[in-house]
Amino acid sequence: MIAEPSTMLTDYALAAVTGYLALRLHKTGKSPWWTVAFVALALTALLGGTYHGFGAPVWKATVLLAGIVSCAMVVGHACLCGGEAHRVRSVDAVAR
After folding, report:
1. Is residue 83 predicted with pLDDT exceeding 70?
2. Is the pLDDT of residue 82 over 90?
3. pLDDT band at residue 1 under the 50/70/90 scheme
4. CA-CA to 87 of 20 to 30 Å: which in 13, 40, 74, 96?
């Protein structure tokens, strides 16, 4: 029995779209951090859909992946907008 079918379907649709975008972004090779962000977002949506649809105990992994999405987006933004290596190193040091 599917608990929340509309939420499950929208999560799976989000996973498909972001997975496709991650693949396209990876092929360009321009922004590895944004590729990581989109892959993690796709996995987050996939696990979220599984949680909402079937009640599988994957919520902690879903929240962990959401944190990875946020971190990768911050670092990706720093790399694309700032570009200086010292800024990226300081973001990496904060993450550790």
Report:
1. no
2. no
3. confident
4. 40
pTM of the model: 0.81
Confidence grade of residue 45 (pLDDT, cut at 50, 70, 90)? very high
Burial pattern 64-91, b for ≥16 Cβ within 10 A else e, equals: ebbebbebbbebbebbeeeeeeeebeeb
Counting runs of H as helices and runs of E as strands, what totals does the chain give? 4, 0
Residue in the block written with tokens 């990581």: 36
Question: What dihedral do alpha carbons 46, 47, 49, 55 form, nearest 10°?
Answer: 160
- Cα distance between residue 71 and residue 76, in whole Å: 8
CA distance 34 to 87: 17
Q: Both tokens of residue 8?
A: 């499950």
